[in-house]
Amino acid sequence: MKIKPLFAIVLLSVLLFPDIRLSYAKPKYQELKYLFTIEKKEDRFKHPSDVAISEDGLAYVLDGVNNRVVVFDGQGEYLYEFGKGGSGEGEFDMPLGLSLDRKGNVYVADSGNHRIVALSPKGDFLYEIQVPPEGTKNPDPTDTVVDKRRKLLYMVDNENHVIYTYNLRRKRFVRSIGEMGLGKIKVDLRWPFTLDIDRKGNVYVVDVINTRVRVLSPEGRFTVDVGEWGVDSGQYFRPKGVAVDSKGRIYVSDSFLGVIQAFDSDGNFLALIGDEKNGIKKFITPIRISFDKDDRLYVVEQFAHKVSVFELK
Amino acid sequence: MKETADLKFKSKYSSNSLFSVLKLPVLLLLFLSPLPAFAETGGGVNSAKECAMCHINWIDVFYRQGQSTDLTDYPKEKLVANEMMCYSCHDGSVGDSRLKVWETSRHKTGVKPSANVSVPEEYPLDKEGRIQCATCHSAHGVNTKPGMAETIFLREANVNSLMCKRCHRNKKGGPKMGNHPIDVKLKKIPRKIVNNGGKLGSNDTVICQTCHTPHGSTNEHFLVIPNSKGSLTHSQLCETCHTKKPALAEEDSKRRFSHPVDVPLMEEARLPEKWDNGKKPYLSYDGRINCITCHTPHNGTKDNHLLQNANVKGALCVTCHTSKKTIYETKHDIAKFYPDEENSDAVKAGEKGTCSACHHMHKGNSFKMWSRAVTGNKMEDLCFSCHDKEKVAKKALTGEITHPVDVAISGNYTSLSLPLYTKTGAKSVKGKVTCPSCHNVHRWSPDSDERGEKDVAGDGENSFLRKSAGGDSLLCRTCHTDKETLLETKHDMNEVVPDAINIKGQNLKKSGTCGACHTPHNAVAGKLWVREPGSGDGNVEVLCTSCHADDKEAGEKTTGVETHPLGVIPKVVDEEEIDLPLYAGDGSLWKKGAVDCSSCHDVHRWSPSNNDKGGKKVEGDGNNSFLRKKIGKTDELCNVCHKDKFTVKETKHDLGLTAPSSKNANRETVSESGTCGACHTPHNGRSKKLWSRNLAGEGDVIEVLCSSCHSDKNVAEDKKTGFVSHPLGKRPNIIPTMKNMLPLFNGEGRKNDSGFVTCSTCHNVHKWEPEKEKGPGKRKIEGDRFNSFLRVPYDDSVTLCAACHKEKSLIVGTDHDLNVTAPKVKNMSREKVADSGICGACHKVHNAWGNKLWGRGVGPGENRIEALCTGCHSPRKAARKKIISTVTNHPMNKKVSDAKATLKRETSRFYKEGVDYHIETKFPLYDKLGTKTSSGDITCSTCHDVHRWDPSRAEPGTGKKIEGNGGNSFLRKSNLPESSLCTTCHTEKRYVSKTDHDMSVTAPEQKNKRGETVADSGVCSACHVPHGGAKSGYKLWARDFSSQSELIAEQTCLGCHSSQGIAAQKGIKRFRHPRDIVVSEVTKPEDSNYAPLYDISGREVQTGIIACPTCHNPHLWQTGSLVKGSGKGAEGNNRNSFLRLKSASNVCKDCHGFEGLMRYKYFHGNPFLGKQRRD
């Protein structure tokens, strides 16, 4: 009968303190330190959707609603910008993603124009790549990533749920993968949105509605899925951004919950970005994240029209 | 349900020991654990991912456990349709609505619906009753295929904007309810709307979403195309469909057919704080009007064009066009006075109001959005849509003669106080005058608030004029600024005739100063004349004579009978333009037109050179008098047309030089009248040629003008023509080549080819020298034959004289040309022929010495002609070698009527005897004074034409002295070879020709006393010579006289018929009729058988001695037969032999009777002859 009081206490605790977890383990946090914010006070960003950091530390912020790319230095000071609305050279129509190659050339996923636009670091038009119209909807490129070693360009077609691989040297598509699906099939994707790549050439695809991050091998096969549906650690509600740091850790942002989580290269949950004192760090619609060569974390807080830069510990 | 299940569970397992231990806490746990708001959804909670993707609250940890997680706190509110939930997909990751929803206008959320909106229950609001995304959006509203991709996130199918209508019920109903029509089919789909996100309903109908979009609009009112945003001045959305209203295709079209938009609000506009519909009046950027200033697609006037305010009686119009209110109750208030008048849309004025009677906001027929039927495309045609026959304003027509419209104003205008209009009806300083230039059709009186009466005629102080034309005619002077100079002059009626009434019965106050003479409409004559026209030929003249006529206002200022001609075209216009106005036949200005009063006069300006106004009592002169240019001093005015007359300057006829103090008949010195005015005056001339000097002397119409000065006690009294001067008033026969150079004149003083000679025929009084334009100036020089105002120089070709006296020009080069025969001899004016000219050597045009305009001395003579000839042909005179003796010459100064009977008989053919005897020959007879008369005397010029050397050749002379003969010698007729000259009168003497007494037959080589053979002298002059014959002059004998007889009558015969004579073979040696027998007249001179008796001196006497010619007629061979000889020497008989009578029957017998015959035989028979021979 000793068990009864204990049970009662537990029962009462559960009743009175619903927050007490039955299976409770304290989350692990990866602390960060705020460094600076990249934004434009006048002529502000309008729901920026991506940021890429060049080898020399310049931050290229994609201000797609304004149809431009705005470049800042390593301290967040404005340098220049390029691009305007339209469908001509150097023009965009609601672009959603961009990436840089080793030379600093910029590859913009020009969604409204159904193409990838290659520009010089200064924004001079180089060429364009028409995304193949192989789906049932108009091509809708939302992100690109460059395999600098293999000279490959990966692009994601959001509306058609496809990932294309493009050989930059040979200027042709080499393969594609993906089809609309709930995730039961290996190649299923449902509104893939953003990309990142690690040093090994694995491409990380945020499969938004399937609430996972899929890893695409250099050979073009999905290997690992990182994360799963849910609202708890290691889970996603609205995964949007993915970034791999220099150590191969995978970071994924959740734009609705406003959090960033870290995973190991095998896809195991590592930590929440935040600290024990304050808990998980809440961002405002963190749609994209990127690391510079110093592993400083750039977070595109879309609804706040800014990019916040942190140092992770 | 849970409770029932629990009870069942309890009953079944109540004996289980473990359960009995756990049952209470379990039950409590289950019972008291926080349950989800199950009742919120009414059921259907599903934590499945596909549901929980949006229904995050349904996730088990939240819904069942009610717990927060490491990532997020427990959601206390429903987040399913939370904005950020939507954003989590519509951020570009699933759909990209960043721009459309979050950076543009979108349907309001987070606010409570207004009173105008009625949200149905099935469109849920949030807890606070505010609109939220979920009000309209739901994944469960429209049946679709399963799956996110197929889901339509709306509460219900929004066909034809159904969802909009569910709430915005007051926006339905169309124009009848004051809303833009919806659910109506468009004729043409404007692509622009679709391209900008507008949607069309089924069957291409207009729906709410055609114009509005709940998301994605960057424009006001969620419009797909803006109407009133930012710097827009146009209602672009309206214009997308309503392109014709207004017509904006062209800039000017805005003002043509439709109310303009994109124009600043008028200064006079008085917009209310709010319209009746509660809306604030809208003006676009920079305060400009556009569609929605007057219209509103919602909450507009019902069934009345969706106006912001009802336009009752033009109330909306006059909100801005406040100044147009003055139209009410004027004659142009058609709605009031002509309510049944319809516009071109058949809308009655009384129904739609004053403004709409004439204007249609968007479907105008012409400029100014005209709503009445028009027949032309000019501004004035708008007025004519009423002011025309059979139209509503048929009593107010402009008339045939009316102020011009559609004309430009001369001069540069940078601003206008009266508007000019372009051809598209826009006001412009470069536009033209048209009706609204003067008329403000919306305002009756410019200076008061009077509205006029419907049937009262207007005047210059009202009549919808923009400015008053009454009083000092401010309206007129706005444009006609150059006419302002009329004020205070004599043509200002206010000054001279203040109670003047024009033909319309208006006094000056009503008509205005200008209106005293002019009226813009319904004028009665040219120049918009409004006075009773006078008389005259010119279109302008009749206007002037309205007043400048007897018994009229300016009756003391008439032009007189002799006045400058009007209606004539100045010759100078053939070569150049003149800067005085000339007029066409209809009174319009025309550069090649004719002169009229206004050519010289600017009736609106007193002085051409300054602002002098003159005055009522100031008499004008050549420096003012409303002249366009001065006459005085500079003669500018005359010089414009009469340039050719300006050569008078610096000549002796320039009285400014020669007689500066002389005055004309108007008492004006030359400095006052001007050079021209010294002699001419444009009006009230004393005589023809607009003469302004007092007349003097007598003569023809021109001559008396010249005599004004060239007469005693006048300016040129030292230059008179003298008592004897070239005849004037005669009609010469001018050679054709000279007709243009020497004009003749008629009785009116005008040039006329059928006119007569007068001073101006030879003289151009305006030009000193024919070949030079300039006069000699002040130099005192005497004129000569090369100047002296002659039209043609009197040169050595006698061009001037020969123009009329052509036949006289044959004198040139003859012996009568003193250049040839006597170059040093002077005439009575002490002129050598080189000075005087050939004609002038003998004749003086002026101041001659007697008739024939003689300019030389005269000699002896009983006849004037003879005296002229002997002026040279006498001893110690120029022709002393050609002296004419009265003794040895052909009888002169004798009348034929006084000739002896035999001569009379000879001239009986052409001699008319009687009281008015005369003789008709080619040879003139002269009276004593040298005047030709058929009853005159024979004199030198009877036989001689002193100007023509050779009668058979009409040529001038050779220029060398020539000794003449019977064939020339200035004879009128040649005596060679026939003595035609002599036998003209001595008709029976011609029958000597070809007889034995014709020396060309019997003695051609014999010479007469002048040394001439018959070939030189002619038949008659072989024996008789008109000049230089025998000293005694008997028979003008040119041969020897015989001494064998004491009878001179026989001496002439015996001069040839003697042994020493040339007719020796026909000499008479012995016969001699007894001398001591005196016979009385047996026959009479008029008898055909007349046998003359002679005295000893050879005169034919009644009782005398028988001599040769008693029996013989030496000129007639054949007795009793007037025939010429045969031309061969012939032996005669008693039937010829120059016998007067046939000897066989008459000779002797007539005297001696029958016995005489016996005596004849005795003396002429053989016995006698034989005895004689024996003796």
Describe the structure.
The complex is a heterodimer of chains A (313) and B (1175). Chain A is mainly beta and 313 residues long. Chain A is 4% helix and 48% strand. Chain A has one helix at residues 3-16; strands spanning 29-30, 32-38, 50-53, 59-63, 68-72, 78-82, 84-85, 91-92, 97-100, 106-110, 115-119, 125-130, 141-147, 152-157, 162-167, 172-177, 179-180, 188-189, 192-197, 203-207, 212-216, 222-226, 228-229, 235-236, 239-244, 250-254, 259-263, 269-275, 279-280, 286-291, 296-301, 306-312. In chain A, strands 1, 25, 26, 27, 28 and 29 form a 6-stranded mixed beta sheet that branches. A 4-stranded antiparallel beta sheet of chain A has the order 2-32-31-30, with no helix packed on it. In chain A, β28 (269-275) and β29 (279-280) form a beta hairpin. The model of chain A is unreliable at 18-23 (pLDDT under 50). Chain B has 1175 residues and is an all-alpha fold. Helices cover 20% and strands 2% of the residues of chain B. In chain B, the strands form 7 sheets. Chain B has a two-stranded antiparallel ribbon with strand order 1-2. In chain B, β12 (1093-1094) and β13 (1100-1101) form a beta hairpin. Mean pLDDT of chain B is 84; it is low at 1-16, 30-42 and 245-250. At the A-B interface, α1 of A face α2, α6 and α7 of B.
